[in-house]
Structure formats: C-alpha cells, structure tokens
Amino acid sequence: MSSVNTISQPVKVSPYQSLLKRLNEAADILNLEDRFRAVLSVPEKIVEVNMPVKLDNGKTEVFNGYRVVNSTVLGPSKGGIRYSEHVDKDEVMALAGWMTLKCSIAGLPYGGAKGGITLDPKKYSVDELERLTRAYTRRLKDVFGVDSDVPAPDMNTGGREMAWIADEYSRFYGNQPGVITGKPLELGGSQGRSAATGRGVMTTAMCAMKELGWNPRNVTAAVQGFGNVGSFGAVLLWEKGVKILAISDISGGYFNEAGLDIKGAFEYAAKNGSLAGWTGGTAISNAELLELDVMLLAPCAMENQITQANAANIKAKLMVEGANGPVSADADAILDSKGIMIVPDILANAGGVTVSYLEWVQNRAGHYWTESEVNEKADPMLERAFAEVFKAHKDYKCSMRLAAYVVGIKRVASAVKLKGNY
Ligand code: NAD
C-alpha cells in the first residue's frame, strides 16, 4: 500500500449529462412517450442567487448559490442544501433530478429539488457561515415553503445550518418548523434523522446481501467518505458483522486487512471533526480504497469517484452508493460487464429523505415519535423500495440502476398523465 494520501478529485464529467443519459435509457425500456421525456429532462425552476456577506475582517465577499426545483409533480419539492467549492449549476441540476426520482422510488408525496452555495466552509468562521446562510435564506424565502419547497442538509451542512434557515424564515413568515427538515431535536427535528441516510445504506445493503445469498458476517467492505452518510453507514454495517477493511475521508484512507475498529473511528471523527490523525489503520489513498479487493464497496463521499478511468479496476461485487452520483454514466457499462450489483444512489441513500418526510409529518401533526418508532416506519419503506427496484431489475432484465430509474420515472409519468395539464 502506498502511504501517500492523495485525494481523488472529481473528474470533469457532467453529473447532469449522467442523469439525462440514464433517464433516456430507462425511458427507452418503458417506451415512454416524448412528452413525458420532455417533462422529466428539464427542471421546473432554476434560481441563481448572489449574496454579499460581511466577513469578520470587515471586507465583503459575494457568494454564489443555487436552488433548483426539478419537479413538483408528486408534491412539494424536497432536497438538501450543500456547501462545497465544487457546487455549480450543472451539479445542483443533477442532484435535484435525482431527488425527484428518489422521492418517487421511496413512495413519498414529494417532488425533487436541491440547493447549494459555492464555498469551502472550512475557510470561514461560524459567524460568517451564519450570516451567509441567513442571506441565502432571505434570497430564497419565497421559493421555500412547507407546501412548496422543503430543504434539508447535505454535504457540509447539518442541524446548525437548518436551525439558522428555520429561524431566518420565521422572521418573515412566523414559526413553521415543517419548512425545513434535518433540524436539531429542540427545534422540531426528528429522532433518527442524523443516522437516517447511513441507516438506509445499511438497510438496502442488507437487502442486496440477502439477494446475493451473502452472510454479512463473511462480508468484507470498504467505505469512502466518513461524514454523515459514511460514518453512520459504516457503524451500522459493522454492527451487522460486516468486516470493514478500509474507510476514508478528505484526509485520506485508513486500512487494516484484519478489519478496522469502526466504533473507535466514529468516536474519533465525532470528537475531532474528521479522521485526520487517526492511528487505527495504515494509510492508503482514496483512489486505492476504491480498488481494494473487498466484497462490498460503499462510496459515501461525493460524485464522479468511479468513472471510465478506474471502473475496470473495481473488485467489489456489490456497490452501495451512499453518495449521490459517485459513478459517472460512462462507467455504467464497464461495471455491468463485470457483473457488479449496484444499489444505486437514488435507492441506497433514500433513508435521509424518508426520515425527513417523517420529520415533516411530525411537524405538521405536532406529535413526535421515539427513535424506534421512526425506524419502525422508515425501515419497511426502504425495504419495499428495494424490493420494487429488484423486481423491475428482474422483470426488465436491466441493471439495478436502470431499474431504479424505471421505478422512479413510472410514478412521475403516471402523475403527469393523471394531471393532464401538460
Ligand atoms: P458530509 O459533509 O457529512 O461528509 C462528506 C465526507 O466525504 C467527509 O468525510 C469528507 O471528508 C469526505 N470527502 C469529501 N471530499 C472527498 C474526496 N475528494 N475524497 C474522499 N472523501 C471526501 O456529507 P454527507 O452528508 O455525508 O454527504 C455525502 C454524500 O452523500 C453526498 O454525495 C451527499 O449528496 C449524499 N447524501 C447525503 C444525505 C444526508 O442526509 N446527509 C442524504 C442523501 C445523500
């Protein structure tokens, strides 16, 4: 193993083009009429915002951000807000489109949206981030709404940012906790939301392992990304007996052939903000982690980690996509030809939006559930979604990814048809 912690940077592949390519392939399988393809292939609304924010040093910086509403056909649009230097219009458009399909597959009464601000949050103070988040909220206060567009956390955002957004929004429209999900518990958040996406990764991975006839106790795995999704996903898989040989984050990868102490890594990252300096494994690069000889690979960091450039080197036989778009469309055929079973992002990471939906329901009812009550509701929703996608995979004799697109498209197209107003 190399000891160089090189970080795999996203390759310049358009995530939106990846989305469109797969949408068209799935639409071909369904013989979808052109009018439905037209509705599905463009977002309903693209809002670009610029926010001048006073920095701690007295200077002003103008930040650029987006909110893209892909679809409201099935209900209010739903989707997270990410802070990352890679955020651009193309990325947010793709993420919004995946949200539409994800909510459809999960059977939620939601359309899809996504938001983002282009910045590296590590370079700014908490006060600067708060001013920026509030400015972004003011720009979008008439897009957001309990029954129109409901944001949530994504990369580099969490309960803290959701609390600022909810508070800023309340200054204009009064306290409406259901306008945003992923809030801290004290502000109307749901039990189980923090772990929800990682729990969904574990739940759908367990469904896939069952179909493959694998006993989790005999499975080896690697998890890329150790943030919200990857850390909870890794811990929950580890608790099921999966031996996790490698984990990573932006600081690099950590490897142990005998299996890592994932609980120790989780506690270390929670305390220190990342895995940097963790001594529980030998150093490997993020690129090496992806190509390890493990049975299960869970990319849980960011998009375009597996492309035409490295797909042929992937050795895992099951891939569970915790991240959105970790595999670019140009890699699909290569991975399919290797017989890899892929639980695609729009199914594998739907646990987050599912519990966000349960948070929204609790906010509207003013009645709150325990964590086990939340999990008892969310787990079967994901198991049903997996079963439906797996059935489509068998019925249409297509990859699990295209099967997920087929299931997602079907419900949206059917709603478009019923509405009859296009
Ligand atoms: P996060 O910010 O909590 O964690 C991201 C992790 O990835 C961190 O450990 C970070 O160090 C690591 N990382 C960043 N760049 C990397 C790189 N180049 N190489 C390797 N590791 C890198 O974000 P998150 O909420 O866990 O989101 C991760 C992915 O999951 C994103 O694609 C996001 O859209 C998706 N997702 C998140 C949620 C959610 O509820 N948080 C829901 C659905 C999907």
Care to describe what's here?
The protein has helices spanning 15-29, 34-41, 89-105, 126-140, 159-173, 193-212, 228-239, 262-272, 286-290, 332-337, 345-348, 351-365, 371-395, 400-419, and strands spanning 45-54, 60-71, 77-84, 111-118, 149-153, 220-224, 243-249, 252-255, 282-284, 296-299, 318-320, 341-343. α3 packs across α14 (400-419) and α12 (351-365) crosses α13 (371-395). The chain has 422 residues and is of the alpha/beta class. It has a seven-stranded mixed beta sheet with strand order 9-8-7-6-10-11-12. It binds nicotinamide-adenine-dinucleotide. Residues 7-8, 153-156, 197, 224-230, 248-250, 274, 286, 300-302, 322-324, 349, 352 line the site of nicotinamide-adenine-dinucleotide (NAD).
Can you give me a brief rundown of this structure?
Helix content is 45%, strand content 17%. The strands form two sheets. Strands 9-8-7-6-10-11-12 form a seven-stranded mixed sheet.
Would you spell out the secondary-structure blueprint of this structure?
Elements: H1 15-29, H2 34-41, E1 45-54, E2 60-71, E3 77-84, H3 89-105, E4 111-118, H4 126-140, E5 149-153, H5 159-173, H6 193-212, E6 220-224, H7 228-239, E7 243-249, E8 252-255, H8 262-272, E9 282-284, H9 286-290, E10 296-299, E11 318-320, H10 332-337, E12 341-343, H11 345-348, H12 351-365, H13 371-395, H14 400-419
Parallel strand pairs: 3-4, 3-5, 6-7, 6-10, 10-11, 11-12
Antiparallel strand pairs: 1-2, 2-4, 7-8, 8-9
Helix pairs in contact: 1-3, 1-14, 3-14, 4-5, 6-7, 6-12, 6-13, 7-8, 12-13, 13-14
The protein binds nicotinamide-adenine-dinucleotide.
